[in-house]
Design a protein that fits this description.
The protein has 198 residues and is mostly beta strands. Helix content is 4%, strand content 42%. The protein contains 1 helix and 13 strands. The strands form 3 sheets. Strands 1, 4, 6, 7, 9 and 10 form a 6-stranded antiparallel sheet that branches. A 5-stranded antiparallel sheet has the order 3-2-5-11-8, with no helix packed on it. A two-stranded antiparallel sheet has the order 12-13. A hairpin with a 4-residue loop joins β6 and β7. The longest helix has 8 residues.
Amino acid sequence: LSVPVDFVGEALEVRGFLRLENVTGWAGLWQRQDGPDGSVAFDNMQDRPIRQTEWREYVIEGPVDTDATAVFFGALASDSIPAEFDAFELAVSDGDAWKPPAIRDPGFEAGRDPRTAGWGGNAVTGTQLTTSDQSAPEGRHFVRLVASVATSAVGSALPNASAKANTFVDIQLAPGLHARVRTALTDVEARVAAAPAW
């Protein structure tokens, strides 16, 4: 599945409420666009990090690339400092009007594991992703992310978007050090990767 044609070339806006447990870490919204050649356009607010301990609404926006094949979005936390997120909103504009694509459980009101509504955390052992009903900025619940590594993220995809073979995500391992990781393998590659190395 791919980004719907009517999203391509239009402005994309991601909104959400964020706060940190303390200011020694940072958090941010993120948005990633995958191109057909494995290229990735990525904004994770690292150049404007969120360090607030009270709920505030933040936004990132930019155009959907004309060759984008998939668009993903979410929020991230760093430095093993708990960060909390709520009330995600997504909108696409053609210059005349904003269109809000439906996203599943944007306020985490289902009150259960956010992964069941399509909000995936990065697959790092020990990263915690839970919901809470204590002082949500909107509705009754919000999600709490505790990173087990330098940076962990929670996210979802635009409707009708999915990871494709030869797409990548850049992960910050330490200041100035990043890893580019494949987000999907073809069936053949998956079988080879799963084969014993001896």
